[in-house]
Design goal:
By secondary structure, the chain is an all-alpha fold. The protein has one domain. 85% of the residues lie in helices and 0% in strands. It contains 3 helices and no strands. Helix 1 (3-24) runs antiparallel to helix 3.
Length: 66
C-alpha cells in the first residue's frame, strides 16, 4: 500500500480511539469536561472521513492495477 493510504488509515483509527476514550471512559470524560468535550466529539466524524478517504484511495489504486 502507498504510504499516504497507510497514514490516512492510521490517523483515522487514532481519531476514533481518541473519540471513544474521550466520550466513553471516566478518565476521558474527566479530562474533557464542559466545552473541551467538543474535541472528542469532533474527532469521531473526522476519523470516519479519514478512514473513508483511505478506503477510496486504496480502491482507486487497486482498480488501476487490475
Amino acid at each position: 500500500m502507498r504510504p499516504a493510504i497507510v497514514a490516512l488509515l492510521l490517523a483515522g483509527i487514532a481519531c476514533e480511539v481518541f473519540a471513544y476514550w474521550g466520550m466513553n471512559t471516566v478518565r476521558g470524560r474527566r479530562a474533557f469536561d464542559e466545552m473541551a468535550g467538543i474535541l472528542p466529539l469532533a474527532a469521531a466524524p473526522t476519523g470516519v472521513v479519514l478512514i473513508l478517504l483511505a478506503a477510496l484511495l486504496w480502491w482507486r489504486t487497486w482498480g488501476k492495477r487490475g
